[in-house]
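Is this the right way to post C-alpha cells for a design question? Let me know if I should format differently. Anyway, here goes:
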C-alpha cells in the first residue's frame, strides 16, 4: 500500500523531515483514510503516526560560550566616529586658546599629543587639565 501522499501531507503538517515520520503497520487503514491536515494531527495524537527524535548534534544544546560581557565588541565604525568627533572638538578648543594667547606653543604641542592618544574623555576634562597647567 503506497502512502507517499499521506507522508507528504504529514511532512507539511508537522513541518519536519521525511525520515522522522513513521506510520504504524497496525493503523495503516486509518492513515489511508486521512485527507486533511487535521486528520494527520489527530492520528499523531492517537499514536498512529510516530515522530522520531532529532539525531545527531542538533539535539545537543549549544554551549553559551563567547557571549560574556567581555566578548561584546562595539562596532569599529562607531568607535572611530566618536574618536573623530571628540578629537576635532578638542583640537578646535586648543587652537582657540592658543589664538587668545592663554596657552604657549609647547603646551599646545603636548596637549595635541595627549588628545591624539585619547587622554581626555571630554572637553571639560581638557579644561581641567589646562587649568592645572596654568596654576
Amino acid at each position: 500500500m503506497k502512502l507517499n501522499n499521506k507522508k507528504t501531507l504529514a511532512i507539511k503538517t508537522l513541518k519536519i523531515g521525511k525520515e522522522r515520520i513513521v506510520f504504524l503497520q497496525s493503523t495503516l487503514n486509518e492513515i489511508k483514510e486521512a485527507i486533511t491536515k487535521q486528520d494527520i494531527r489527530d492520528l499523531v495524537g492517537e499514536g498512529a503516526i510516530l515522530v522520531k527524535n532529532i539525531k545527531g548534534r542538533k539535539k545537543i544544546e549549544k554551549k553559551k560560550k563567547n557571549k560574556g560581557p567581555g566578548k561584546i565588541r562595539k562596532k569599529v565604525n562607531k568607535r572611530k566616529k566618536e574618536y573623530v568627533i571628540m578629537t576635532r572638538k578638542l583640537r578646535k578648543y586648543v587652537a582657540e586658546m592658543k589664538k587668545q594667547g592663554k596657552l604657549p606653543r609647547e603646551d599646545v604641542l603636548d596637549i595635541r599629543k595627549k588628545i591624539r592618544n585619547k587622554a581626555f574623555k571630554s572637553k571639560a576634562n581638557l579644561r581641567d587639565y589646562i587649568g592645572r597647567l596654568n596654576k
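Format looks fine. Someone answered above. Worth noting: The chain has six helices and two strands. The chain has a mean pLDDT of 88.
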